[in-house]
Amino acid sequence: MADTLFFRPSPFLDPGPTAQPDGVAVLHLKRDLQIPTLLREQDERQEGYDEGKVTNTRFGSFPHSTLIGVPWGSQVRASAVDTGSRGRRGKGKASKGGKRKRDEEGLEEGADVKKIKKDAEVDEDSAMTANSQGTIPTAKAAVTASTGFIHILPPTPESWTTSLPHRTQVVYTPDYSYILHRLRARPGSVIIEAGAGSGSFTHAAARAVFNGYPSSTAPTDPSIHHQPHGKVWSFEFHEQRVSALRTEIHDHGLTPLVHITHRD
Predict the structure, then answer these.
(1) What is the dihedral of CA 13, 257, 2, 15, to 10 degrees?
(2) Which residues of the chain have pLDDT under 70?
(3) Residue 220 to residues 1, 210, 216: CA-CA distances in angstroms?
(4) What are residue 38's DSSP bridge partners?
(5) Are 161 and 206 in contact (CB under 8 A)?
(6) How much is the mean pLDDT over the chain?
(7) What's residue 43's pLDDT?
(8) Which one of 22, 30, 201, 242 has the lowest number of neighbouring Cβ atoms within 10 Å?
């Protein structure tokens, strides 16, 4: 019951005017290419970018600091990010191993190159010290690149369907629209889904039945009519798919509306 009493609004249902931290955003690169990303203020995976959390695309790199707080539909310019430093922090041995390999291959380095690498090793040692102390290095301000841009859009079941990670066959928009129509799904309905798969229909069904969030302060007067809250009861036999979908449902703020059960 705890997951129905404490919740945060889902960007799939109420995105608000701007992109928010810990919410999902869709990066629109072109008509048939969109990338969903979970916006983070800090690089929780410690990938080593000086700019903090970064999403890399074919049209450039986009630090999340340049995406958070931006109005939906805005064009965002790419940033000049040193993508070669990804994963460098905390992996000093691998970096030194790579240097030894280059030396063995007989590659000569000029003074400028050696100075850059020395500075990088100093930055790496500082970052490793900070990580060992349990702190996250302060991200530096992003610098706009000369080329590349995307548009940032709020997530919808339609955009999620076209960009989600495929774990099995996907139910696409025309199909789930027809299914929901035949089910007469409406706000407050309860839907049972046999086979969650990649979660495409799950997201569409959650939006269709959404009728507000359950409240922890229900009226005590029995004469007051309680507004029915929609619910999606989803069943999936594949354990890995269940685990991945539960994580997505949590990250997308749909936990109060969707309950996933691992069973056939």
Answers:
(1) -10
(2) 1-7, 85-137, 214-227
(3) 19, 24, 12
(4) 24
(5) no
(6) 81
(7) 82
(8) 30
CA atoms of 37 and 53, how far apart (whole Å): 11
25 with 43: CB under 8 angstroms? no
The CA radius of gyration of the chain, in Å to the nearest whole number, is 23
| CA separation, residue 183 to residues 158, 198, 201, 207, 257 (Å) | 19, 21, 13, 14, 18
| Chain segment 29-40, per-residue pLDDT in tens | 999 999 999 999
Query: Taking a C-beta distance cutoff of 8 angstroms, is the pair 186, 208 a contact?
Result: yes
The strand pairing partners of 75, in sequence order, are 151
Residues 6+ away with beta carbon under 8 Å from 209: 185, 186, 187, 188, 189, 190, 191, 230, 231, 232, 257
Q: Among 178, 213, 177, 176, which Cα is nearest to 196's?
A: 176
Q: Count CB atoms within 10 A of the CB of residue 128.
A: 16
Greatest Cα-to-Cα distance within the chain, rounded to the nearest angstrom: 85
Phi, psi of 213 (to 5 degrees): -90, 150
From the list 260, 264, 152, 261, the residue with the least C-alpha distance to 203 is 260
pTM, to two decimals: 0.74
Please give the structure tokens belonging to residue 110: 């000029």
* Burial state string for 151-183 with b = 16 or more CB within 10 A and e = fewer than 16: ebbbbbbbbbbbbbeebeebbeeeebeebbeee
